């Protein structure tokens, strides 16, 4: 009788030990699977790219909240398209090309993948020579490229109101296309296309886009930016493989 009890006890202990071992093995396998999936997610997660917008009141969103300005609307479009970009809007009301040169260094401390520059119209309103405006813009682009050799540049062109057709007006309008061609930049021919002169898309001053106008600006820039952003994202993915 005693031997039988001892045998039953031994079987019970062995059964319990086997159950514990099976539990431990299953738990370890589950942990390994979870860690493997997590590791793969880390490896394949695309790092955040950066877009810097350097502009004037048109890009700043004069009279509106920061989130209503087209650069922040572009950030939403990028997220919706599954493109992992962080947008920094370094635009300032009244901004000029000379002012852009002064403000730029503070933003060169971080890597820039795409650079959108929208400056020059305030210079033109002040009668700054077109050659000087062009030189300042070229310096801005050169400084960004020096710190970020693989950066893609997007130039937002502007036009003066056609009150006159003198050489200054036509020269200013052509300047942006020339800069884009020289620097291999993507080009928005006229940022205010559709918006300029439409009271329903501008604030009461008739100059600055309202909320609806900024949405149109976002679409205008997005048509040029989207393929550039996809190219940058694809290039980064290939380099990480």
Characterize the structure shown:
There is one protein chain. By secondary structure, the chain is of the alpha/beta class. The chain has two domains: 1-45; 47-240, Rossmann fold, CATH 3.40.50.1110. Helix content is 56%, strand content 10%. The chain contains eight helices and five strands, in the order αβααβαβααβαβα. It has helices at residues 2-44, 57-60, 70-80, 97-103, 121-125, 130-147, 167-183, 211-240, and strands at residues 49-55, 85-89, 114-118, 152-156, 186-188. It has a five-stranded parallel β-sheet, sandwiched between helices. Helix 7 (167-183) links the parallel strand 4 (152-156) and strand 5. Helix 6 runs parallel beside helix 7 (167-183). The longest helix has 43 residues, at 2-44. It is globular.
The largest pleated sheet is described as: 5 strands, parallel
What's the number of domains?
2
Uncertain runs are: 27-44
| Cα-based radius of gyration, to the nearest Å | 29 Å
Distance between the ends: 70 Å
Q: How would the global form be characterised?
A: globular
Q: What's the CATH architecture name of the largest domain?
A: 3-Layer(aba) Sandwich
CATH class of the largest domain: Alpha Beta
What are the secondary-structure elements, in order, as H or E?
HEHHEHEHHEHEH
In total, the number of strands is: 5
CATH topology of the largest domain: Rossmann fold
Strand order of the largest sheet: 2-1-3-4-5
Which band does the percent of strand residues land in?
A: 5-15%
Count of DSSP helices? 8
